[in-house]
Design brief:
Helix content of chain A: 40-55%
Oligomer: homodimer
CATH topology of chain A: TIM Barrel
Largest sheet of chain A: 7 strands, parallel
Shape of chain A: globular
Order of helices and strands of chain A: HHHHEHEEHHHEHHHEHEHEHEHEHH
Strand order of the largest sheet of chain A: 1-4-5-6-7-8-9
Strand content of chain A: 5-15%
Distance between the termini of chain A: 27 Å
Chain lengths: 369, 369
C-alpha cells in the first residue's frame, strides 16, 4: 500500500487534492549527496550495484520530498545487455565502442534473458522498494526503441545523429530489424521492472525530436505502441508515461498507443496540449529546465503559469508536474526545492472543484449514515 | 523584370505552373566549385569580398538550376558590424571572442550605419543582380533577433545555449535591451538588402527551437513582427519568409506577423501545417536534409510525399520546395540534382486546376479577341 499515491492517481486521471511532482534525472549530479557517492564509484558501477543504485534513488525522495522515486539507471544498459560494449567517460559522455553499422552487426546482437542480464536493476528496485516502505511509488523506465537505436548506431550522442538517420532512410528493412530486436528486449526489461515492484513506467524517446512525423510514426511510435500494449495487457493497472521529446505535433497519435500519460517537453504550451487531447490521457511536465537557473521568484512565477495553463482539474484529468527534460547538473538544489514546495501548495487551488465535490459527497455519506 | 518569377509568385500565393525550389545553404561546402573558391579564401573574407560572394551565390543557380539565388553571407555579420569580434575557425565553427555578459557589454554595442558597416553585402547583391540578368530572384536574409542574441550571448553554437537562456529568465529587461538593439540593426540591414535589389527576404530563427511558446512569443516573435511590419510598410511587394525552426505549435501566431510565408522544418507534416493555416500564408519546405543521403529513388519518393501532402493548389495557395534546414556539407551534389529535377517535373500535377483555369481563361480571351 502506498502512503502517497498522488502520482499513480494523477496518471490514472483520478481526483487528487494537489498536483504531484517528480523531476527527470532527479537522482543526479546537481545533488551534493549524489556527487559524494560518485566520488568513490564510476557511473556504470553505480548502476550495477543495487545497494548504491537504491541509495541514490532514495536521495531525492528524502532530500527534495518529491512524490515519486525513479530507479537510478541509464537507458544504455539495454544495448549493453545485448552485447554492445559501453564506455562511460566523465569527459565525453557514454560511448559504444563498436556501433552497429551492418546487417551482421544487428544479427550478432544477443536477445538476453533480462532477468539474468539486467538482474541488477531488478535487485535495485526490490531494495529501493523495501527501503521506501510505501512512502512514494517507484517509476521504472527504459529508452524507447528509436532512442536506443540512435545511440547504438551512432555510437554516442551527436547533434543530428546522422549515421542513425542515414540508416533509416537508406536501409529501411535493416533499421526495422534492429528496432524490433531492441524493442523485444526493452519490453521484457520493463516487465521485469514491474515484476520487481515498479508502480509506473516511463518510456523515454529523447531523440524523437530528430524525426519527421512520418518517420516518427514508422520508426518510433509503432514500437512504442507495441510496448505499451504488451504492458497494459499484462499489467492494466500500471500507468505508462510516454515522453517523446519534440513530438509536439503528433500528441494525438501518441495518445492512441494506449498509454496513460504523455510527457511534454517545454516547447509546447501545456494548456494547448490539454485542449488538443481533451483529457484522454494525463499530462506530465513541462517547465523549461533552464528556469531553475533563475531567481526564486521567477521560478515560482513560471511554475504558476504552467499550473494555470493546465487549469482547473475535472473529475477525469491528470497532471504530474515535472521539468520538460532532465535537470541540469549545475542547478542549485535550493532552486529545485523552491519549485517543489511551490507546486505542492499552489496547485491545491486547481483541484478545488474536486475537493468540493469530495466534501459534498462526504457530507451526503454522513447524512445517510 | 524576372524571367523566372516562380518563387515570388508562389510566396505571394499567385498561380504558378509548378512548385519552385531553392535550398537553404545552397551555396556551400557540398559543392566542389564552392570548395575550390574556399581553398584560397577564408569564410569571412569570402563574405566581405563582393566579387567572390557574388560568384558563390551564382554557383547553385548555374550548377543546380534552382529557382532563386540567396546572397552568400552569414547571420553573424550583424553582431560583428555592431562591434563584436568574430572568429571563424574551420575546426570549431564561428565564435565571438567577447560574448555579451553584462549590461555594459550591451551598452557598448554600436548601432552602425549599415550602409557603411555592411556595404559589402549591398555590393555583393548589386553585383549578383547584374550577373543574374533577371534569370531568377535573389533572396536577402538575416538572423532573427533571438538567434543573433543566442550567439552573441553564448559566444558560439551550443547544445542548449544555457548562458543565453539564463539571461532571458534571470535578467529579462537586459535581454530585451539587447534584443531591441539587435533588431534595429538587422531591420536596417534587411532594408539595405532590398534597396540593393533583393526580391524577397528570409528571417532565420534557428534557435527558436530552444524556447517555450511563451518565451518564443516574448523574446523572438515580438521582434520578428516589428521587422516584418517595417519591411512590409516600406516594401509591400517584397515577400518576407519567416523560418523559425522548431516553432511548430505556434505557426498561426507566426502567420499573424504579416509575413508572406512560413518556412517549415522537417518535423511537421506540411499537410497538417497547410490545414492549420488555411492558405493564409505560403509554406516553404520541408524535406529532412538527411534524406539526401538516401538513394535516388528514396529521395524521389520522399519528395513526392511532401508534394502530395501539400496537395492540390488553389488559386491562392503557395508552396516553395526546400529542405527543412540547411543542406549538409557531405551531400553528393548528384543527389541534390535528383531532388531538384524531380520536384520541377512532379509538382506540375498539383497545379493542374490552375493550369486548366488559366487555359480556359486563355481560350475565353481568344474567343473574345
Amino acid at each position: 500500500m502506498l502512503k502517497n499515491d498522488l502520482l499513480i492517481r494523477a496518471l490514472q486521471r483520478k481526483p487528487v487534492h494537489r498536483t504531484p511532482i517528480w523531476i527527470m534525472r532527479q537522482a543526479g549530479r546537481y545533488l551534493p549527496e549524489y556527487r559524494e557517492v560518485r566520488k568513490k564509484t564510476d557511473f556504470l558501477t553505480l548502476c550495477k550495484t543495487p545497494e548504491l543504485a537504491a541509495k541514490v534513488t532514495l536521495q531525492p525522495v528524502e532530500i527534495m520530498d518529491v512524490d515519486a522515486a525513479i530507479i537510478f539507471s541509464d537507458i544504455l544498459v539495454v544495448p549493453e545487455a545485448m552485447g554492445m560494449r559501453l564506455e562511460m567517460l566523465e569527459s565525453q559522455g557514454p560511448r559504444f565502442l563498436e556501433p552497429i553499422r551492418s546487417r551482421s552487426d544487428i544479427e550478432k546482437l544477443v536477445t538476453p534473458d533480462v532477468s539474468q542480464a539486467l538482474r541488477y536493476v531488478e535487485d535495485a528496485i526490490r531494495l529501493t522498494k523495501r527501503e521506501l516502505h510505501g512512502r512514494v511509488p517507484i517509476i521504472g523506465f527504459s529508452g524507447a526503441a528509436w532512442s536506443l537505436f540512435a545511440y547504438a548506431v551512432e555510437g554516442r550522442a551527436s547533434k543530428d545523429f546522422k549515421v542513425a538517420k542515414e540508416l533509416i532512410y537508406a536501409c529501411r528493412s535493416d533499421a526495422h530489424a534492429l528496432l524490433q530486436k531492441l524493442n523485444r528486449v526493452l519490453t521484457d526489461y520493463l516487465l521485469l521492472q514491474i515484476e520487481a515492484g515498479a508502480n509506473a513506467i516511463q518510456l523515454f524517446d529523447t531523440w524523437a525530436s530528430l524525426l519527421s512525423e512520418d518517420a516518427f510514426l514508422e520508426f518510433s511510435l509503432t514500437y512504442i505502441q507495441e510496448t505499451v500494449q504488451t504492458i497494459k495487457t499484462k499489467y492494466p493497472n500500471v500507468p505508462v508515461i510516454v515522453f517523446a521529446k519534440g513530438a509536439n505535433t503528433v500528441l494525438s497519435e501518441i495518445a492512441k498507443t494506449g498509454c496513460d500519460a504523455i510527457g511534454l517537453d517545454w516547447t509546447i504550451d501545456i494548456g494547448r496540449a490539454r485542449w488538443q487531447l481533451a483529457d484522454r490521457v494525463a499530462l506530465q511536465g513541462n517547465l523549461d529546465p533552464m528556469i531553475l537557473y533563475a531567481p526564486h521568484d521567477v521560478i515560482r512565477k513560471e511554475a504558476a503559469k504552467i499550473l494555470q495553463k493546465f487549469g482547473e482539474h475535472s473529475d477525469a484529468s491528470g497532471h504530474v508536474f515535472n521539468l520538460g527534460h532532465g535537470i541540469l547538473p549545475d542547478i542549485d538544489p535550493a532552486h529545485l526545492k523552491t519549485l517543489i514546495d511551490f507546486v505542492k501548495s499552489e496547485s491545491t487551488k486547481y483541484h478545488h472543484q474536486i475537493q468540493f465535490s469530495l466534501t459534498q459527497k462526504d457530507k451526503k455519506d454522513d447524512s445517510v449514515s
